[in-house]
Design a protein that fits this description.
Elements lengths: L4 E9 L6 E10 L4 E5 L6 H9 L6 E5 L4 E4 L11 H11 L4 H14 L15 H13 L5 E5 L7 H16 L3 E5 L12 E6 L2 E4 L11 E7 L8 H4 L4 E6 L2 E7 L3 H9 L6 E8 L5
Parallel strand pairs: 3-7, 3-8, 5-6, 6-7
Antiparallel strand pairs: 1-2, 1-4, 8-9, 10-12, 10-13, 11-12
Helix pairs in contact: 2-3, 2-4, 3-4
Bound molecules: adenosine-5'-triphosphate.
Length: about 280
């Protein structure tokens, strides 16, 4: 994603005379950011996500800077006449991958979400949880610049939920933007760059400081150049830093972002030496 996606005075209503679901929405989504939308049932979160994803057009206002986008809908149409492998390969090819590269990406994403065993089972025969794995895999296949997730974690098993959190972290680390809605307030807690509340058709930025991540956290002990602070590419994921001796830091990071943090540390110039990685019982004491 190279520039901001902007919604300018966007409104959406269903039907010519229907009530306005959203009105006067001003929203900027910048490259590399994670944005959470929240709000009570029926306030228009899914409507806004569909507009952001380009699935639905605004009734008024305009959108600029639309990047290559992928979307996981609240209800995935699972009874498609494909196998997961065939569907993902087809989508990858539509997004410009060669057939071989699309097939490889399809296989890789189905494996990551634990769906490889039924890669060749007709999608209409999959359970709800299995088709949700296909729903999230289809969004990742073409490495989108904007990823829009509407309750995408719902129905996934614990491993696939964690994998989706990692995939989100990878996308934002690669410069893509991710916008999500999830009923679990602890989903990626402390990680979003911005959280907006949809209320009465409008958007409010939740300004209070995000709570420290309460989910599983990882403690990473690293040695860097004497006197140096952790590199900026890594710093955004860190929820606590403790310099235990000169040059040696203990970094706390949400488990979902530990892979991304480690990669940022190891690819920094000069690289940081990772001494140990382990779980934290309480993410913050
Ligand atoms: N296709 C549609 N046609 C007519 N009205 C719609 C349509 N989709 C949504 N609406 C209406 O728009 C309003 C907002 O719905 P939306 O699904 O965007 O809210 P939401 O915040 O995502 O709700 P939930 O949390 O229950 O999923 C609701 O009143 C809903 O009935």
């Amino acid at each position: 994603m190279e520039r901001d996606l902007r919604l300018v005075d966007v409104g959406r209503r269903y039907g010519l005379r229907g009530p306005w679901v959203l009105r006067g929405i001003e929203l900027t989504v910048s490259p590399g950011t994670l944005v959470r939308l929240e709000g009570a049932n029926g306030t228009g979160k899914s409507t806004l996500l569909r507009v952001l994803a380009g699935i639905d057009a605004p009734s008024e206002g305009r959108i600029t800077g639309r990047p290559r986008t992928a979307y996981v809908p609240e209800r995935f149409p699972s009874a498609l006449p494909f196998t997961p492998s065939g569907y993902l390969t087809h989508l990858g090819a539509v997004h410009g991958l060669s057939r071989a590269a699309a097939a490889r990406a399809a296989q890789q994403w189905l494996e990551r979400f634990g769906a490889a065993a039924y890669a060749r089972t007709p999608m209409a025969r999959l359970s709800k949880g299995s088709s949700q794995k296909v729903a999230v895999a289809q969004a990742m296949v073409a490495e989108p610049e904007l990823l829009v997730l509407d309750e995408a974690w719902t129905g996934l098993d614990a491993d696939a939920r964690a994998e989706l959190e990692r995939a989100v972290a990878e996308r934002t680390a690669a410069g893509a933007a991710v916008v999500f809605v999830d009923h679990d307030p602890r989903r990626l807690e402390g990680v979003p760059d911005a959280t907006y509340t949809v209320r009465d058709g409008a958007l409010g930025l939740r300004t209070e400081q995000a709570a420290p991540a309460a989910g599983p956290a990882v403690l990473v002990a690293v040695r860097g150049p004497a006197g140096a602070a952790p590199p900026v590419e890594a710093a955004r994921w860190i929820t606590a830093v403790d310099e235990v001796e000169p040059g040696v830091h203990r970094l706390t990071v949400p488990a979902s972002h530990s892979d991304v943090l480690l990669r940022a540390l190891l690819t920094a110039r000069p690289p940081w030496h990772v001494m140990s990685v382990g779980p934290v019982e309480e993410s913050r004491s």
